[in-house]
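Listing S7. Sequence submitted for prediction.
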Amino acid sequence: MNKWENQVDPKVKKEINDEGFEGNAAVLIGKKEDMPNLENKLESEGKAVDLATYIKLNKIVAVSAEEMEKEAEDLGKKFDKGDCFLNRTRLDMNLYYVDMAGNLAKIEIDFEKIDTLKNEKKNPEIFRIIKERLSELGFSDGFGKGARSDEATTQMLDGILYRHESRIKEQMKQEAKDEFNF
């Protein structure tokens, strides 16, 4: 990880990449390998024909593979590629999953932007429908193996994300302290 990689807060980066328009120009922030996906997302405005395309366009790496390995060790868990957890609140639905590289990815599901799901938004079975589609795509329902309640999984994910954000904040504080020159 280079010195500048975590200089932009992930939330700020997401806001800029989601709404980085200025007249006819756009601003995208990311690594070189992220640019084709960011450009596709920009051109499509995050919309997709199906759930698979939506996931590829809108995936946000929440926690790196290295940190996920450490978390797995600390928690005594094994996180496999494709492990996923669908978290639904009253207002929204989020998908967390371990991607091909071992990162923890997060996607905020916006049904209005997925052609095949637009009309399902108010369907009381939407949660089951999404779970079925995810299964068809090769995702495995369950996170960190072992029967866990949704509440326990939510707490585990919240803990992972909280520790990740804390490490980034601490790293930024240390870098600011190291660069202090007044």
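Caption to Listing S7: primary sequence and predicted structure tokens for the chain studied. The two ends are 27 Å apart (CA to CA). The helical segments are 10-19, 35-44, 51-58, 65-75, 126-136, 150-179.
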